[in-house]
Design a protein that fits this description.
Chain lengths: 171, 115
């Protein structure tokens, strides 16, 4: 079974001002891309459609939330915060494959039909991203089965199984 | 001026929507997929098609492929800086932007300006 779920409690981890910050960052990144495109041309502007400007903010917020949660429990939380942000980055690396598929599909379809380009590219992003995530998950499970006899890592009692191993998140 | 206000509002709304989706999804690595969602691209390409036509937007889409490859490398570098170098998230993600810029421009130049 795929353990993808919604966690509404995560929304309460954030502060109210984080939402306007993201809105402003998203708006600024879109304006910036538009300025680059109109000044240096569509080709250079296109590069910046994949600029990870928003990722900087979201990784920082994830780290903050994790530290805050651990501090409430009387722990330092810095290491857990870094690990949570690293997991987010590992997910973003897989999402980048999906973004590549999005860009490729859009480029191939846009001159045929604009609507088909947006729908096809979005579907390509979704399918490729989720597919890459599932393949990575499968590989991790196979690896875990192979090392099942080995002693468990010391973080085994944490609530999020993804934060247990102290290896690089994509392994 | 109106164009930039529209860009700001559309970009802010699309990015916020994807970010909130990433917030509520678990596990964390799955939510991370939404950190690399084409939110800015959806907003920008929509405006590009409306203003300049399909060929212009197609050219942006082609270049975006180089940016996406750079994003993948950027994410791996961020992971290394967080886990191995034990940097905090903000310096790790900001420092890695240099890597993104070098890789994206490098691919763009190697591909002959992706024209």
């Amino acid at each position: 079974m795929i353990p993808i779920r919604f966690s509404r409690s995560s929304l309460s981890d954030g502060r109210w001002y984080e939402y306007p910050i993201r809105f402003v960052l998203g708006g600024v990144a879109t304006v910036f891309t538009g300025v680059v495109s109109s000044r240096y041309g569509a080709s250079i502007g296109g590069l910046f459609l994949a600029l990870p400007a928003i990722f900087c903010a979201s990784a920082t917020l994830i780290e903050k939330h994790e530290i805050r949660r651990k501090r409430k429990a009387g722990l330092a939380g810095e290491r857990r915060g870094r690990e949570a942000a690293a997991l987010d980055a590992a997910g973003a690396a897989l999402g980048a494959i999906g973004m590549l598929a999005f860009a490729g599909a859009f480029w191939l379809l846009v001159e045929i039909s604009v609507a088909a380009a947006f729908i096809g590219a979005s579907l390509a992003w979704l399918v490729v991203s989720i597919g890459a995530w599932l393949v990575r998950r499968k590989l991790r499970l196979v690896r875990r089965l192979k090392t099942q006899a080995a002693p468990r890592s010391r973080g085994a009692a944490t609530e999020d199984p993804e934060l247990r191993p102290r290896t690089m998140p994509w392994r | 001026m109106t164009e930039y206000v529209v860009r700001f509002l559309v970009g802010g709304a699309v990015v916020s929507a994807f970010a909130m989706l990433g917030d509520v999804l678990r596990p964390k690595s799955f939510a991370g997929l939404f950190g690399a969602a084409p939110s800015v691209a959806l907003a920008t390409l929509g405006i590009a098609v409306y203003q300049h036509g399909a060929t212009y937007a197609g050219s942006q889409g082609l270049s975006m492929m180089a940016g996406a490859i750079a994003l993948g490398i950027y994410s791996v570098v961020v992971c290394h800086l967080l886990v191995r170098a034990q940097l905090r998230a903000l310096p790790a993600t900001l420092l890695s932007l240099v890597v993104w810029l070098i890789v994206a421009c490098g691919i763009w130049i190697l591909a002959g300006g992706l024209t």
